[in-house]
Specification:
about 350 residues; alpha/beta; seven-stranded parallel beta sheet; globular; binds nicotinamide-adenine-dinucleotide; binds UDP-4-deoxy-4-formamido-beta-L-arabinopyranose
């Protein structure tokens, strides 16, 4: 019997490449599309090497609807996972139109073609950023979304709403939004991982680049927050665990186990970790000293947020299994691989 095929848009990126591996390992056929605006072919080669499968790759911009239509005509997938988006929060404040244009157009094109070409199942990459500074912790899927402080965050809220309204209106279209907390780490093979361009905005790549000597010193943004050690708290989710959540969610749609046409799941560990705890854990598991200093607070930072993951645990039958230490060891192994250390 032919394998079930899944389109992975943005599959040359960080989370998309790990998800492509997890899908193939779970028995799916994968087609990767990407415009390589924030990635390169190394990740696709990494996916091929890890899985031993010559995964088809097509260089396509999802904002180009006619080019995207060619992909829909060429491949018979019933399901798609849409990762393709820009994701730098700070840049989105400086260049809002770039973010609204890319993140909204790419998603609308995918949805329109799903409809026009009779495809059924779509997963959307949403973010814990939609919760802002929560009133109560941990956040559940029913916690209120807060007005976003960035155009990037707005695109996530808007795309969630577009998916909700489309699945309500168009018969045969089913969707799930996965709200990722803070993805980190890399595949244990060290063949794929996170490769930010320029100075990293996110904590873990800044830590690994500092350990590798690419950055001089990690600035910890604030140690005077009302948390036990004064630093901010997040729910850091291993990217391999996160990839597994996509397999669970797309399988739910493909097998018709969804309870509504549109569902939302938090994807985190359910555990809050402070910046200082993470730095200390990184030093300990990798047996090194990190050069860091306490700096001022970063504008717009949430003080603390972590997930209630009961819904994903029960409904998707999925749970994060990797420990913080395992993940930080994998992140360091990947950085060393990239730097040839
Ligand atoms: P990434 O930049 O590594 O991957 C995104 C990929 O999409 C890149 O390979 C990029 O080249 C591609 N892309 C962008 N616009 C495109 C377009 N118009 N057409 C085709 N390809 C396009 O980012 P990531 O960390 O893997 O994030 C994947 C998704 O998850 C994004 O939607 C992001 O907003 C979301 N997300 C990420 C995080 C995080 O912290 N990494 C957290 C929550 C949500
Ligand atoms: C984590 C913690 C920083 C860098 C962002 C987006 C969010 C989502 C994930 C996409 C914070 C501290 C960081 C540094 C530091 N992305 N930090 N020094 O801000 O939780 O979320 O990425 O959807 O939308 O906003 O992640 O990794 O930037 O920061 O002290 O050099 O690390 O202050 O407390 P954040 P982050």
């Amino acid at each position: 019997m032919a394998k079930e095929q899944v389109l992975v848009s943005g599959g040359a990126g960080y989370i998309g490449s790990h998800t492509a591996v997890a899908l193939i390992e779970a028995g799916y056929d994968v087609v990767i599309i990407d415009n390589l605006s924030n990635s390169d072919m190394n990740a696709v080669e990494g996916v091929r090497k890890i899985t031993g499968v010559d995964v088809p790759f097509e260089k396509v911009d999802c904002c180009d609807k006619e080019a995207l239509r060619v992909i829909f005509k060429k491949y018979p997938f019933r399901s798609a996972i849409h990762f393709a988006a820009y994701k730098a929060v700070g840049e989105s404040v400086d260049e809002p139109l770039k973010y609204y244009s890319n993140n909204l157009c790419s998603f609308i094109n995918i949805l329109e073609l799903m409809r026009e070409e009779g495809r059924e199942n779509i997963l959307f990459s949403s973010s814990a950023t939609v919760y802002g500074e929560p009133d109560a912790l941990p956040v559940t899927e029913n916690s209120p979304r807060k007005p976003s402080t960035s155009p990037y965050g707005n695109t996530k809220q808007m795309c969630e709403d577009i998916l909700r309204d489309s699945t309500a209106a168009y018969k045969g279209l089913k969707g799930i939004a996965l709200r990722y907390f803070n993805p980190m780490g890399a595949h244990p093979s060290a063949l794929i991982g996170e490769l930010p361009r320029g100075v990293p905005n996110n904590l873990v790549p800044f830590i690994t680049q500092t350990a590798a000597g690419v950055r001089e010193c990690l600035s910890i943004f604030g140690d005077d927050y009302p948390t036990p050690d004064g630093t901010c708290i997040r729910d850091y989710i291993d990217v391999v665990d996160l990839a597994g959540a996509h397999v669970a969610a797309i399988s739910r749609l493909i097998e018709g186990r969804n309870k509504a046409n549109y569902e939302i799941f938090n994807v985190g560990t359910g555990r809050g970790v402070s910046v200082m705890e993470l730095v200390k854990a990184f030093e300990k598991v990798n047996n090194l000293k990190l050069n860091y200093r306490i700096a001022g607070r970063r504008a717009g930072d949430t003080i603390e947020v972590w997930a209630n993951t009961s819904l994903a645990n029960e409904e998707l039958g999925w749970k994060a299994t990797r420990t913080l230490e395992e993940t930080l060891a994998a992140a360091w192994a990947w950085e060393k691989h990239v730097r040839g250390l």
